[in-house]
Amino acid sequence: MFRFLNHSSFIMDSILVDPWFKGSIFLNGWNLLKEFEYDINKMYYEYIYISHEHPDHFHIPTLKQIKHPNLKTIIFHKTLDKKVIEFVKKMGFKTIECENNHWYDLPFGKMMVHSNGFDSMYVYKTKSGKTIVNMNDYQIKNEDELQFGITNVDYLFSQFSYANWVGNKGDALMPKKAQSIIYDRLSTQFKVFKPKTWIPFASFVYFSHEENFYMNKYTPNISDIKRFADTKNVKCIFPTPDMVHNERMGDNALQYWTTMKKMATVKHKNNVQPLEEVKESFQKMCDELHYYNDMSLFDAEETYIKVTDWKNVIKYDIKSRTFEIVSQLENDIEMSSECLHFLIKNKWGRGTVLISGRCQINYDKANNFFNQTSLWYNNNIGKYLGKNLLLKEIVNQDNFYQRLMGDL
After folding, report:
1. Cβ atoms of 46 and 72 closer than 8 Å
2. C-alpha triplet 363, 366, 368: angle, nearest 5°
3. pTM, two decimal places
4. What CATH class does 2-262 carry?
5. Per-residue pLDDT for 332 more than 70?
6. pLDDT tens for each residue of 210-222
7. Which residues share a beta bridge with 111?
8. So what's the architecture of 275-405 in CATH?
9. What does the pLDDT average to over 377-386?
């Protein structure tokens, strides 16, 4: 039925899903619990489904290993910026750019993709009569978001644990709150889709940097996830690398992944960035922000960022183009200069830093940081203030981190 490869990747019929098999991602913040050697050119597949552009799903080094991309078709959801679809076209791939909730015929069945503009999930119906739903990392708040007329699915694939910053050092409560959000999301999926079998996946990674390694202490054990599924009366099968689905799949998975987690070690250290280079990158970012956005509409307080390896605090304001060292004692967030430089140089950088977990956040004042960095992050997906983006969509927004730090 399917061959599980690693993390979020598997092959079902002629579709290869989210291939990433080795290497560090998210600014050296994540590694696979177990790297497994695969030759992507010896696998049988005609299509590659990419759920979203995060590197544990859209892993460019893996795609570059494909010798004849012209023989493969990338399936990706429609986006405003078309960045990913244009990128893979230049690599030589054929493409299917999926409209929401439209069925696409494939050799062994048909697929319907649903996206929120960045992330996506799919429903796949095989010609043999099976229905598969791959939720992957797709975030939902209530069951209304999953009303596709699909229920009693044969296999449901879902991320089973959080995969981002979920609390500062020594905070054991915040990770529990984060996992409760995941459990609520899974409960909604179970209620709507009524799966005959649930395949927990997309969480077989660990925090591998010296700045985030502490978070591994709080990630849920595989046995915790199994107990959760049991409380929901859902049949749960854990996959292990290179296993082909059968009814015995997962018999040794609990022990396998528990052992892999115990073997995890720190792989990466910080790379200090020169202050003047970061200041120059900040001004270039502001130039682009002011050119493409109506900054007269932008209204948010400055944010204060403690740069741990510089041992100082930076006042950061994109409207006034302020980037200066101040004597401020309290800050909104702490991070290394490497992280700060990355989120300035790359529109998607804030997401990378937060997902990597390489930061410490002031729970009471984090909103200042989010307000100052949301516009750059939205420009990454083709949304610009004064054109197709309102101030209220980027200032004081409701996001996972704000829900996590607030009262659940």
Report:
1. yes
2. 150
3. 0.94
4. alpha beta
5. yes
6. 999 999 999 999 9
7. 104, 124
8. 2-Layer Sandwich (3.30)
9. 95
For residue 407, what pLDDT band results from cuts at 50, 70 and 90? low
Q: What is the pLDDT of residue 219?
A: 94
Q: Which two tokens stand for residue 130?
A: 């099976």
Instruction: Please provide the size of the chain in residues.
Output: 408
Show Cβ contacts of residue 227 under 8 Å, excluding neighbours closer than 6 positions.
none
Q: Which of 90, 92, 87 is CA-nearest to residue 72?
A: 92
Joined tokens for residue 338? 């490497």
Q: What is the pLDDT of residue 408?
A: 40
Dihedral sign, Cα of residue 252, residue 255, residue 261, residue 265 = negative
Q: Where are the domains of the chain?
A: 2-262, 275-405
Mean pLDDT of all residues belonging to the chain? 94
CB atoms within 10 A of CB 405: 17
CA dist list (Å): 263 to 152, 206, 215, 260, 267: 38, 10, 15, 5, 12
Handedness of CA 367, 372, 375, 377 (dihedral sign): negative
Angle 289-294-300 from CA coordinates, rounded to 5°: 80
